[in-house]
């Protein structure tokens, strides 16, 4: 990101809300230049539209800008550390069956975001892969050359990679999610589970009763 816009975001993070004049004073830039950078940041979704704040004192109303939730990802975070600590606590306090149920419910909550998916097998797999990639996976699919109606999904990068190094159970989320997204009647098998080791996770999916 351009240095000036990065500085603007850091100032907004520190102050909470700012006006064009606040940023002009902090950066030593003209109001026109500041507005130009604000408009770019607004178009990228990092700051909100200007909001009018009226004062009891006479004069023009103030227009203030704030960071959006999207901007939070631009600053340092420790999501992996928090997830690892929570999973460690779960492993200490819950029996294996209870942990498995919890991971299945987590997968279901994520899968719910996909909405309705097409019933046609090829279109369904395509939608599953698109949804996975929207969640931070790097995946692709193809129909098996050996067996018609058998579809293979290859996951080459997992968004939980760092957490899975110490908590292998988290890989169950992927398995449950692919099953749920594939829908009723789907037969899903995880053939390979190596994304956590820098390889691939491979899923085979078929719908024995579906019309191809």
Question: What are its keywords?
Answer:
6 strands, two-stranded antiparallel ribbon, 8 helices, 212 residues
| Biggest sheet architecture | 4 strands, antiparallel
User: By helix and strand content, what is the structural category?
Assistant: alpha+beta
Question: Which regions are unreliable across 5 or more consecutive residues at pLDDT < 50?
Answer: none
Spell the H/E element sequence. Answer: HHHEEHHHEEHHEE
What Rg is obtained from the alpha carbons, in whole angstroms? 24 Å
Largest sheet: spatial strand order:
3-4-6-5
How many strands? 6
Share in helix: 40-55%
Shape by Cα distribution: elongated
Beta-strand content bin: 15-25%
Mean pLDDT level? 89
């Amino acid at each position: 990101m351009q240095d000036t816009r990065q500085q603007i975001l850091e100032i907004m993070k520190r102050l909470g809300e700012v006006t064009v004049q606040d940023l002009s004073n902090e950066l030593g830039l003209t109001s026109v230049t500041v507005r130009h950078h604000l408009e770019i940041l607004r178009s990228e979704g990092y700051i909100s539209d200007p909001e009018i704040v009226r004062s009891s004192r006479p004069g023009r109303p103030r227009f203030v800008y704030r960071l959006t939730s999207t901007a939070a990802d631009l600053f340092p975070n420790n999501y992996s550390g928090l997830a690892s600590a929570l999973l460690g606590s779960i492993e200490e306090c819950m029996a294996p069956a209870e942990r498995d149920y919890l991971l299945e419910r987590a997968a279901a909550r994520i899968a719910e975001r996909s909405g309705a998916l097409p019933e046609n097998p090829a279109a369904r797999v395509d939608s599953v892969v698109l949804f996975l990639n929207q969640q931070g996976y790097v995946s692709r699919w193809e129909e098996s050359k050996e067996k018609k109606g058998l579809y293979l999904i290859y996951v080459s990068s997992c968004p939980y990679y760092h957490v899975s190094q110490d908590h292998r159970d988290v890989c169950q989320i992927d398995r449950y999610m692919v099953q749920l997204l594939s829908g009723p009647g789907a037969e899903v098998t995880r053939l390979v589970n190596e994304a956590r080791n820098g390889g691939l996770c491979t899923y085979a999916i078929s719908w024995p009763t579906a019309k191809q």
